[in-house]
Amino acid sequence: MAFSLGVVGAGQFGGQFAHLFRLHPGVSSVVVVDELPERAASACKQWGLDGVLDSFEELLASDVDAVAIFTQRWTHGPLVEQALRAGKDVYSAVPMAVSEEEISRIIDAVRETGNVYMMGETSYYNPATVYAREQHAAGRFGRVFYSEGDYVHDMDLGFYDAYRYSGGESWKETASYPPMLYPTHAIGGVLGAVPAHAVSVSCVGVSDSRGDGVFDKGVSMFGNDFSNATALFELNDGGVMRTNEMRRVGYPSHIRESRFRFFGTEASLEQLAHVTVWQDKKDVQDISALMETRPSIPLDDPSLANVAPELRDAFVSGLAPVHDPARLPEEFRGAPNGHEGSHHFLVDDFVTAVNNRSMPPVNAWVAARFTLPGIVAHESALNGGERLPIRDFGDAPPTL
Q1: Domain end point (choices 122, 145, 180)
Q2: DSSP state of 52
Q3: Rounded-to-10 torsion of CA 91, 93, 99, 100
Q4: Closest alpha carbon to 29 in 48, 8, 57, 55
């Protein structure tokens, strides 16, 4: 069984995912759409795709079965809803949406159409989250009462170039995107391991001081001058989650941009850029090697000659030892990966859900729990840190 897919947004990120979708045996063909026709044509040629369409509207009117949306982060909500109601299964890059109303409309569309929706949250397969999820399921933390998820991605380390690439001459207007409206890499890594959801938040935003026209209210299309923000969430299980979203920070985000801490009554996990430790009341265990993603290299690379057979899958697929490569298609061996080994799993999750007509792990209801807390946190920051309630849309139904 296989389905056809249309990729919307042929930039650097969208092109890489289009390549992985095309490699997957569960996808029969991949076409691409972009506002810049030359960019779509280039991606089609580079990644060996199956064609280019002229517009999003043409894609929705076509017989393509599913769409994958990789457009500007504040545009996802309306495009997702439109695609679902056009009869398409939908994969969306993060965030899910930028308002509670948009989130609600997506959930309604999924419920009413029975189509698959999945948000591509990379931190769900972050090695630390995978490890913490396993330890939590085994009861080794005891009760997790406090957790942290930080997305520490400095503007100087890639974001300036990315916004120039996607925003054109008016890139500064969009580069001021509020940090807490892009919360899922931090929140998803915590809630992807601990089965809880946020019920209230107090957040403080830090106004930017560089003065280069980015995070400037007079320039920003979002009226935003916060470059950093810190939120404290109350969870429904009585625990606490803290999240940092930082865009001006002296930290090597190119090494590890998302990092996590979990404190339980029996054990805890703490992570820095190069170091991850598991600790209990008796000892500290360095588990950094389990978190280390291996370069994605061809299966026949001579450097694999001295690698133990049980570790070769991680080496050739850009995975970490905590990942389970056995579930991935053989075609992904040696294919580009990213975000600490998550890309292969995200593509496989969506393809599996579409072909099996099943709920993906980060379905609309889970995506809402990863996204809405940040939206409310930004509102709290705009109101001087006022503690605000967070709506919960409930658990996903067992079937589509």
Answers
A1: 122
A2: B
A3: 40
A4: 48
